[in-house]
Amino acid sequence: MRMQDYFRSLNDECAALRDRIRHFIEDRHWLTDGEGKESILRTMIGRSAPDSVKVGRGFVVSHENVSTQVDVLLYDASHPVLYRDGDLVFIPPASCRGIIEVKTSLTPRDLEKACKKLADVAEDIRPWKNEDIFVGVFSYENMIRGGQAQRQVLDLVKGASNGERNRIINHVALGDSTLVRYWKFDPDAERRPCPRPVLRPPPNYAGDYRHWHLYRMEQMAFGYFIHNALMSMASNLSAEEQHVYFPDEGKEMTRIRALAFD
Q1: What is the DSSP string of 166-232?
Q2: How many domains does the chain divide into?
Q3: Which residue segment(s) compose the domain that 182 sits in?
Q4: pTM of the shown model
Q5: pLDDT tens digits along 224-249
């Protein structure tokens, strides 16, 4: 199976659907354009999500707080929701499996704001969860360029955490070729090596690693982002079973920079 080609086809599909909406409305209604891009990502994740997880948009509600609106909400289908109308949902923190902020493009300031918004929501959710959740920023275009761009991206993603693990952003797709991934465990560990980009390493996998890696992967960032979101829902799959969802080559060979949490 040629997973690299499949991942690139996901990039092509994202771009085609994005442009199709723009062909109709051009620049007449940016709100509709943005909502369309959010819907595209919800659809692409939802069609491959297990029946145990639903994909929507909305708010996370606790006794203490109501979150800002989340563009893509992944939530446990076995839990009752507080309110649902179409894909708009209000859910309690314990039901949440993932939160994603969707952008057309990102400048450094935009990335900082998007990461802070998500980190604020994640901080309220994670204390209710026994397992981690998927927390990601997805941008169709990457406007952060220049010689220091790679370090700047990692610094901005790390900065949103304020040194708190409950605030960690663990996935960022910047355009179709740049991906940031947070690793709690070292993907390069020598003990029981795990060469492919699985979300959950084996139980005896080495290390409390805690680094963000930035990858430059030509036209595959969207595919990795979507499939990592899917793997965050796959609590019953071993690391070996998750390998089939990713290219054989893995992405560590495309890593160009890393930054430690501590």
Answers
A1: GG---EEEETTTEEEEEESS-TT-SSS---S--SS--TT------EEEEEE-TTTHHHHHHHHHHHT
A2: 1
A3: 3-260
A4: 0.88
A5: 999 999 999 987 788 778 888 998 87
